[in-house]
Amino acid sequence: MCVPGEPIELRPEPKNPVDPNAVAVFSVRGIQIGYIRAERAPMVRLAMSRGEVIAIFQRSEPWGAIIRASLDGRAPTLPPEQVKDSADSPRTEKTDEVWWPDYIPPDD
């Protein structure tokens, strides 16, 4: 549904009956592709209320999609492409359990 680097739209859903902090994720074609994870949604909503949040599609995964978002109005960028693991060497680490924002150097 999306191409890496393609813009995506984040839409707050304050009337969402499950989570008033919900942020829906839409493709450039207007198709909903998911939600920001509940534990991250409050931070994204706060950034959205303070200014422009820009997001792009990075890649799809079996459990959903990875997006890149800039919470300060700067254009997000894709990381260098990584080589996929071969079928005979399965990954053992769980990359979905660790998350951290990209480093943003302080303005001097």
Automatic annotation (TrEMBL):
Region (Disordered): 74-108
Key word Acetylation present: no
Gene3D superfamilies to which the protein is assigned, alphabetical: 3.30.70.2330
Compositional bias per record (Basic and acidic residues), positions renumbered to this chain: 82-97
Domain HIRAN: 4-52
InterPro entries on file: HIRAN
Pfam family of the protein (one): HIRAN
GO molecular function: hydrolase activity, acting on acid anhydrides, in phosphorus-containing anhydrides; nucleic acid binding; zinc ion binding
The keyword ATP-binding appears for this protein: no
UniProt keyword terms in alphabetical order: Hydrolase, Metal-binding
UniProt-recorded name of the protein: HIRAN domain-containing protein
